[in-house]
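Please go through the sequence line and token line underneath and see whether the fold suits the sequence. See right below:
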Amino acid sequence: MTTTTSTEVTAARRRGPSMADVAREAHVSGQTVSRVSNGRDNVDAETRERVLAAMHKLGYRPNSAARALRTGRFHSIGVIMFTLSSFGNMRTLDAIAIAAADAGYSITLIPVPHPTLGEVSVAFDRLSEEAVDGVIIIVEAHLLDESDVVLPAGLPVVVVDSTAADRYPMVDTDQAHGARLATEHLLSLGHRTVWHVAGPERSYSATHRREAWESTLRAHGADVPPVLVGDWSSESGHEVGLELARNPDVTAIFTANDQMALGVLRALHEAGRAVPGEVSVVGFDDMEESRSFWPPLTTVRQFFGEVGRLSVEELLQEVESGERGGSTLVATELIVRESTARPPA
């Protein structure tokens, strides 16, 4: 039986350890080392542990490029995303990264600075040059409906936050259900109607929430007030909140996200309108800080972690089996806190 000496280990590290070095250290064949490197399951547990220990000792790293040539897999997922600043996008990206790592995949992130057709097309062109097995798209705008946007042929795709399910598998929060929960909660407290601060018009999320808010009001025979539009920021919520605060008929407000709700709360406070004594406010997202707003914010909880996990699961299903998924909606939950109450008598 041969034994690897310290001199041989040092030499292997200097030149970069090879598969043969690992085989000698673990006292196995090169074929066994190859099987372990490629994640094959036809190696007994004790041998696998011995090979992994030898790899660790020598600092051996399998050649991922060579593995990709053999298997046709890069074990990398591309993620195209517009804006890294929004709460929901960052939580979803975090969950995608964790789920991908758990499955043995890395991610290649391609940010889209502006939600325009040109920027998205450039991102897709860059993606065609990357060694990825599939792509997850998080672009919350009506850009995937544009005929000029074409992904590389044969590349598995999953879309988050879109209605492009006829072209690609889609994973999203059930936006409409969350908006109905928020609107019905305020109506059930006795408010005659609910005013809405919507997100940007090109956002699918904002569109679904606005449409569900309106249909819920109509279903309950309530008046539908004019929509005020923000850009997801607390600053835009404050701006439209000042307008709402001046209207004495406003007793209930549903905002399309928690950040705009924060701006609305500030505007109402500045105008001397008590929350929830005079005006009730509901947000959407349940960001961690929403429970620390004053008053603590009633909101709709989205499960971004589940959206990210399922998007990776759907993508890898197509990558590994060729079976394409469909639409998947993740349920929402109403979280009732102190920002809502019955209207003033």
Observations:
- Residues 8-14 have pLDDT under 50 and may be disordered.
- The longest strand covers residues 76-82.
- Residues 304-321 form the longest helix (18 residues).
